[in-house]
Amino acid sequence: MASINSLVMRVRSSFDEVPSSGLGTLVWYSSVIFAVLGLVSGVLTYLVLSNLTPLRPSPVIIWSLLSTNIFIVTGLVFIIGWQLIALRRARRAKRAGARLHSRLVTLFAVIASVPAILVALFATVTLDRGLDSWFSNRTKAIINNTTAVANAYLSEHREGLRRDVLMMARDLTRASEVLMEDTRRSQNFITAQAALRSMPQALIVQRDGTVVLAASNNMDILPDLPPDEAFDAANNGDPVLITVSERAQVRALMKLQGFDDYYLYATRFVASNVLEHLSRSDAAVREYSTMESRRYEAQLTFALVYIVLTLVILLSAIWLGLLIANRLVQPISALINATQKLGDGDLSARVHADNRNDDEVGQLARTFNTMAERISNQQTELITARDDLDERAKFTEMVLSGVSSGVIGVDENGRINHVNEAAEFVFNLNETEVAGRKLEDVIPAFAELLRSGSKKVKTGKIKQIAIRDRDGNEHSLSVSTAQSDTAYGVNFVLTFDDVTNLISAQRTAAWADIARRIAHEIKNPLTPIQLSAERLQSKYGSNIADQPDVFAQCTQTIIRQVEDIGRMVDEFASFARMPKPVMREFDAADTVSQAVFLQRIAHPEISYRFGHEGTLMMVGDKRQLSQALTNALKNAQEAVSANDPDNDAAIIEVRLEASDNELKISVFDNGPGWPKKNRYSLVEPYNTSRAQGTGLGLSIVKKVMEDHSGFLLLEDAPWCASGGTGAGLILVFPLHHKETVGHSRVLEET
Predict the structure, then answer these.
(1) For labelling, which of 109, 349, 371, 607 has a CA lying 20 to 30 Å from the CA of 305?
(2) How many independent structural domains does the chain possess?
């Protein structure tokens, strides 16, 4: 009952939901009007055809009802067709609930059609059978026999009156002579004749209506005379019979022979019910004959009426089915649309839930709204939690990006999930490119570090490893590992620092301390040794008679070696006691030009190229820059000389380039070039690839660059790209030097 009441309430509320568009409003109101007219017309047609109204089912009434029903059918067909087209468009557009709507409409149409069609067929068959029984031979015989009996009764009275009139006329003719002479005897004679023959009245009249004799003084019996046609017919000598149904009389008119313009006009009464019955029988026979002649027309008319009435009822039922289907499908369609919106992310989607409807659909709507509200609240909570996590992640990323240590995150499957900027710089990586890749494919040494403690990574344990970059340069990394167990699995975090520069600085400091001790311990005895050798040469050189040249050669060797050792000690001392730079503005182009000029004078066999013109001001220590350039040019000279001492094509090219922020001094040679691997180890103290080198030249250059907040690059010469050999030493200085010179770093080749 609750479902039925809810459905009734929906249908009732549907009349309050009128479409907002103009055409939709017109069709809506038209559908309601035509549906109501259809029901009223159908009921009225049934009542008229069933003779339950004062209106008789005449052809005019029937055709009027038929026309009205056809008009209603046409309107309903248009309205239902419009709704079906709209439904088909909705189904093609795959709107929510369109298929269910179509099925419900089809179901309602079938439910409404089957009974209506069966009733129409039954009515048509019943009408046909009824007409067959009406127009059967038996019915015809009964009607005809009834009429024949009445006519026989009337004919009998007419025939009796005719015989009596003939006999009375004959008697009057024989007594014509007597009657003409004596009026009284004539009156008695005609009265006796009328009484003898049971005639209520008998008259002798003339054509102009004059009554000559009358058998009765009661003229009400024969108030009127026969028509002229009766007089004309009576002139033939035979009685003319006239039936007057309204007076229940049979009259006879006959021309009297032997009289001039005399006519016998007599009457006789018959039973009034016989004449009335005879009149009705005649009318019934005529009507029956008319109906029989128009049987198929009437049958077709009634069939059309039944068909149209059936269509009216059917279409009204279909319209009602559409209305009910709309009301049934509407909440389901709204629920589907809201579900699709909810699936698309619109958590504000809700369906209208009428509290008056306590059926399953209403409960489903309220349940959906409750679910959507919970999902919306949960999403709000998740968004808040996500925002908090994003803020924490951003803070963590900001911290990780700001630290100098490299950080790499790895999941339990060994795939990289995070790389900070320091790690990207050290390994020349891109986080978007390596994310999701195996750690062993990107940094095998780190993967080996994780595998060494595969059971349980010890958090905080620091291990130092050495790796090479893609250019073959070796880096020393201090790596610590940490393990995090979460509900989503195990994650590993590898934190490392590139301690290559630190180790190099420590090594440089150690070598500087050694150099200072060596310079102190060795330089003190060098002067006495040199003076002693010179004194021996000057005092005893002329007194040596046996092989004096050998004595002189030995003393010169001692003096020369002492000088070489002295120069080496001076280099040790210079490296150990590099003075702090004094920053002043000077012309870098002039300083470079002087350094090249001195080397060109010292080594004329080498082609020195430097073609910079003009001035280029910079802030720095001019003496240290000259020292660094001298060591750089000396290193290039030793390289081209080591390649081929007698090479006439030895070239050293110096370039000076300036930009907005930095100054580059490049020294290129065509010597053997730098080693392909670990070339930056050459800037370490006492690390050299030459037999006669001390390994301090590039170290001094590096120290000068650090004091000037610059950096040193070891690259190949430009002509190596075309198949040549050579090395390039590039000194990069900042043009806008800061007042406080910080710690500089050596940038490795990229």
Answers:
(1) 109
(2) 5
> Tens digit of pLDDT for each residue in 146-192?
666 666 666 776 777 778 888 888 877 777 666 666 667 777 777 77
Q: What is the pTM of this model?
A: 0.37
If asked whether residues 566 and 638 sit together in one domain, one would say no
Q: Where are the beta strands (DSSP E) in 288-419?
A: 406-410, 416-419
| Beta-bridge partners for 408 | 419, 494
The most confident of 121-125, 641-645, 672-676, by mean pLDDT: 672-676
CB-neighbour burial class of residue 579 (10 A; exposed 0-12, middle 13-18, buried 19+)? exposed
Residue with tokens 């050998």: 550
DSSP one-letter string for 688-718: -SSSS--S-HHHHHHHHHHHTT-EEEEEE-G
Q: Are residues 121 and 6 in the same domain?
A: yes
The C-alpha atoms of residue 56 and residue 53 are separated, in whole angstroms, by 7
Q: What percent of the chain has pLDDT over 70?
A: 63
Comparing 583 with 550, the larger pLDDT belongs to 583
Confidence of residue 698 (pLDDT cuts 50, 70, 90): confident
Of the candidates 228, 173, 229, 168, the one whose C-alpha atom is nearest the C-alpha of residue 201 is 168
Q: Quick check: 330 and 104 in contact, CB under 8 A?
A: no
470 found inside a domain: yes
The domain of 561 spans 503-575
Query: Distance from CA of residue 614 to its chain's centroid?
Result: 70
User: How many CB atoms are located within 10 Å of the residue 95 CB?
Assistant: 15
